[in-house]
Amino acid sequence: MNPVLECTQIRHTFGRGELAEDVLRGVSVAFDAGETCLLMGPSGSGKTTLLSILGCLLTPTGGRLVVNGEVVDPKSKNRLSRLRREKIGFVFQHAQLLPVLTVRENLDVVARNGGLSGRSLRLRVDGLLERLGIAAVRAKWPDQLSGGQRQRAAVARALLNRPTILLADEPTASLDWEHGEATVRLLVEQAKQEGALLLVVTHDTRMLPYFRRHLHIRRGVLHEDRTP
Ligand SMILES: Nc1ncnc2c1ncn2[C@@H]1O[C@H](COP(=O)(O)OP(=O)(O)OP(=O)(O)O)[C@@H](O)[C@H]1O
Ligand SMILES: [Mg+2]
Fold first, then answer.
1. Distance between CA atoms of 96 and 67, rounded to whole angstroms?
2. Could you please report the per-residue DSSP string of 84-101?
């Protein structure tokens, strides 16, 4: 089976000259469809940077990225946005919902971009709102939500178009354990159902048992716990 997501010798440097910071120093890793993976590491170790590169949101300084069998060329913007729209679901560390749209509208926009409309759009959006426990706040604007509700709306948005690659940056950071666990279960369940790759960044070691692969990043280098 070909990996659904693969990177080779990814390097990333922020800044120039004296201020240059080598955040990723040659990261190579491959993920198969249906895998559940956790990425951990100290604050500032490059987790968000790596996830952003894997999600085609940030162009690395060097290295090669293959998404769904396609070598990513940072220069072809149209292909990049198509890959992001059709293949990748991304939960941002700080939710990043559109502030001028309600929760419901935030989801509708993404669902429409994914080709849903009418009754199938309503069913999909309402189903996810219910499952994530935020149906009651669907008409609110993001700044009227609690941090946890915002985060759950961001998870719903990432799941909408049934991506084959699901990347989540600390999706449970602003949730209590109960909601955090429910969210992780939903992500894992959804990934299994769709045969999608799930890669989650977290600091919460209680999440470990839900994931098959455990990756760590330290000083820009990726390590993997090989558990049988
Ligand atoms: N846009 C940027 N410009 C310059 N430096 C950046 C930028 N984004 C991140 N960095 C730096 O790169 C390093 C890695 O940042 P990154 O956000 O990837 O860390 P992280 O592992 O996700 O941390 P956290 O657990 O706190 O979210 C940090 O030292 C950060 O200051
Ligand atoms: Mg981060």
1. 24
2. HHHHEEEE-TT----TTS
> Residues with Cβ < 8 Å from 157, sequence gap 6 or more?
91, 97, 106, 107, 110
- Which pLDDT score is estimated for 15? 94
The pLDDT, as a whole number, for residue 225 is 85
CA-nearest of 150, 157, 196 to 173 is 150
146/25 Cα distance (integer angstroms): 37
Ligand 1: which residue has its CA nearest to atom 31? 44
Those residues of the chain that have pLDDT short of 50 are: none
Token digits for 172?
């449970």
Both tokens of residue 40? 């951990």
Which tokens in the block code for residue 123?
A: 């069913």
CA 69 to chain centroid, in Å, comes to 19
Look up the CATH number of domain 5-225: 3.40.50.300
Cα atoms found within 13 Å of the Cα of residue 198, Cβ hemisphere only: 27
Ligand nearest to the CA of 217: 1
Q: How many whole angstroms from 46 Cα to the centroid of ligand 1?
A: 6
> pLDDT tens digit string along 102-135?
999 999 999 999 899 999 999 999 999 999 999 9
Instruction: Please name the residue whose Cα sits nearest to atom 19 of ligand 1.
Output: 44
- Count helices and strands (H / E) in the chain: 6, 10
